[in-house]
Amino acid sequence: MTPVLFLVIPCYNEEEVLPETGRRLNEKYDALIASGAISPDSRVVFVNDGSKDRTWEIIRTLHEENPRFSGVDLTRNRGHQNALLAGLMTVKDLCDAAISMDADLQDDINAIDEMVAKFKEGNDIVYGVRSSRETDTVFKRTTAQSFYKVMDHLGVKTVYNHADFRLMSRRALEGLSEYREVNLFLRGIVPLIGYKSDVVYYERAERFAGESKYPLKKMIAFAGEGITSFSTKPMKMITVLGVLVFLVSIVMLIWSVVGFFLGTTEPGWASLMVSIWAIGGLLLLSVGVVGEYIGKIYLETKQRPRFRVREFLHDTPDGSKLK
Question: For residue 119, how far is the Cα from the chain centroid?
């Protein structure tokens, strides 16, 4: 059976790149359909994540000119992970498999062919993995690789050098829908689903146009989200740190008492200040880490919706409009 493939693309202020993205993906779908790899009912779904530019207007135009393009308009900006989830959950009952990718054309669309082939071989999840990071700056390459190593050390199962370029079957999407947490880190959630998976290696290109939507500040926040959403090791590390500080304080107490009886003690302002600042800093750091986890518990207990769809532009196979 020829699978119905939906491509889900979250967009935030992507007016500069969307026309070219639409053109290239339309050509790719023409080739895939002509070869019999995917069904003519396959679609490309752009998810507008509360953009402030003409992104939704362009998505609407693409849809009106070609029913192959669909659009999901969120009521407000919810962030990349929520926008991606919104698109996947909107189309999960309309397709046999869905591929998620970014709008900036850095993900290699030619890798879609191999992803579909591996899906037909029985894989429910196919990860797009970067074969190298030569296009990254030294800083970004170093920090990204460090992030994956830290996540692995903390016991979080992720796919090395994989972002959000992946294929998921319908039953994998159903499995994803059962994860209800508000603090989303899809790179950690998807491996937990557990179905048969494989990888496709590709070269990541330079961004076609526009600016990156993940500056350093957002990258750091995203890394923190992933760590605190999937690992309690930072809290365990605080316990270990507390024990070590306590042991050091016992050693210092013994040293002070022995020095007092030997008559070698001399009050030292520097050592006192260092001790106060060091212990005070450790306490503030510990409270901050614990507070981060408490904050996430607070958000989860509210059970607020992770996204809300304002409009869904989609032509069904019989030609009718689904909104």
Answer: 22
B/e letters for 276-290, b = 16+ CB within 10 Å, e = fewer, are eeeeeeeeeebeeee
**Tens digit of pLDDT for each residue in 135-167?**
666 666 676 667 667 667 666 677 777 878 999
The dihedral sign for the CA sequence 158, 162, 165, 169:
negative
pTM of the model: 0.71
Instruction: Please compute, for residue 309, the number of CA atoms within 13 A of its CA located in the half-sphere on the CB side.
Output: 17
Strands 5-11 and 43-48: parallel
Q: Are strands 5-11 and 97-100 parallel, antiparallel or unpaired?
A: parallel
Q: What is the pairing mode between strands 69-74 and 43-48? A: parallel
- With 0-12 / 13-18 / 19 or more C-beta atoms within 10 angstroms meaning exposed / middle / buried, residue 308 is exposed
CB–CB of 23/66 below 8 Å?
no
Copy the structure tokens of residue 69: 């393009």
CB distance 202 to 107 below 8 Å? yes
Are the beta carbons of 21 and 62 closer than 8 angstroms? no
Q: What is the mean pLDDT of residues 187-216?
A: 75
Q: What are phi and psi of 210, to 5 degrees?
A: 80, -175
Q: Hunting for tokens 């693309």 — which residue is that? A: 9
**Rounded CA gap, 32 and 137, in Å?**
34
Decide: residue 78, CB within 10 A, 0-12 exposed, 13-18 middle, 19+ buried.
buried
